[in-house]
Amino acid sequence: MAVAKNVSGTVETRIKNPKLVRKKHLLIAAKATKLFIKKGFSGTSMRDISRVTKITLGNLYSYIKKKEDVLCLVFDLYHKSWVKVLEKNGIYDIDDPQEQIRRAIRAMLQSCEPYQDEIKLMYLESRFLPEKSLQSAMENERELVHEFEKMIRRGVERGVFQVEDPFYAANMIVLQMSVNPLRGWNLRDRYRYEELIRLTENYILKTLVK
User: Fold this and answer.
1) Cα separations in angstroms, 158 against 51, 69, 86, 161, 202
2) DSSP 11
3) Could you give the angle at which helices 46-53 and 67-78 cross, rounded to 10 degrees?
4) Which of 73, 95, 174, 197 could bond to 29 as cystine, CB 3.0-4.6 Å?
5) Cα distance from N-terminal residue to C-terminal residue, the chain
6) 72/136 same-domain check
7) What is the CATH number of the domain that holds 16?
8) What is the pLDDT of residues 86-107, one digit of tens each?
9) Residues 160, 98: contact at Cβ < 8 Å?
10) pTM to 2 decimals?
């Protein structure tokens, strides 16, 4: 049995054509995401996935081995390396620590805006990932925390930030950026997304600069 490499781990497949496997995996992930958002991972059956992908149940098992593989593919599609967002937006080229943090938060939140439901899905359903895939997803988030920790430490060294524990502060920043997907039901009626970005920037910076 062939093994298709993906960000969240490995997904076994009986098909040996890598391009075809990648195409079908993208289709399965995209269609299954909508089902998982609507019905949850546990509430979605393989027959449901077969129906929305228009791939017969027998053929579906040629591209995956079990339902958890589909969740791995969903994480592969949406849980991208967030560090690349920072690189793409030139965050590492910004010298001023306050401006660097502010721009980093804005870049992350703007990048996340189209994927609020998908981000919430990954937070809620990550417990169903196989151990290896879960560890990979957690490592992706640790990498982002590490980048914010480095920015905070640089600000502390320059006397701009006053933070007791940069690692803890970096974790809180990453958590704060997840508030809208997780608590958006209580925010969207009052704030536009751009206003949420501004409030998040200001709130985080006030905790760093005292």
Assistant:
1) 58, 47, 21, 8, 20
2) E
3) 50
4) 73
5) 58
6) no
7) 1.10.10.60
8) 999 999 999 999 999 999 999 9
9) yes
10) 0.83
